[in-house]
Amino acid sequence: DGNTTATDGCSATCNIEPGFSCTGTPSVCTPNCGDGVVAGSETCDDGNTAAGDGCSASCALEPGWSCQMTTCDEVCGDGMIVGAEACDDGGTVDGDGCSATCTVEMPPGSPDSGCCSAGGNPTGSFALTLFTLGIVLRRRRRA
């Protein structure tokens, strides 16, 4: 590739480095996005070129995710619903409808909250719908 610099795809001994493909003379080397090896300009490489999993099809970090080399995880509390998050209200406080682990919390008195029997609260489903709608509207106002 015309130099002896390592980590550019072609080693000082003119061997192709892991995560790269090289063509031509002098060699032009580019990272192989989707091979599970972070190389060159890649900020992540999760072993595929699927979007929406934290590492984009061009091996760049996607918003709402945190990637450590080849593993990406959702960032709960950043206000972006991604991956397996059921909600993300921009905080990590329990009791506000969206838990610190980004799961929807049942409002007090709903059938699934554990406080009442299903027959004891006939408006539980309606309350849950209104509560969830409030989370969605709050999120849209922030955007």
> How many strands, what sense, and barrel or not for the largest sheet?
2 strands, antiparallel
Class computed from helices, strands and strand pairing? little secondary structure
The arrangement of helices and strands along the chain is: EEEEH
Amount of beta strand: 5-15%
Query: How do the strands line up in the largest sheet?
Result: 1-2
Tally of contiguous helical segments: 1
Report the end-to-end length measured between terminal Cα atoms.
46 Å
Can I get a quick summary?
The chain has one helix at residues 124-142; strands spanning 20-23, 28-31, 65-68, 71-74.
Structure, described:
The protein is low in regular secondary structure and 143 residues long. 13% of the residues lie in helices and 11% in strands. It has 1 helix and 4 strands. A hairpin with a 4-residue loop joins strand 1 and strand 2. The longest helix has 19 residues, at 124-142. Residues 115-124 have low confidence and may be disordered.
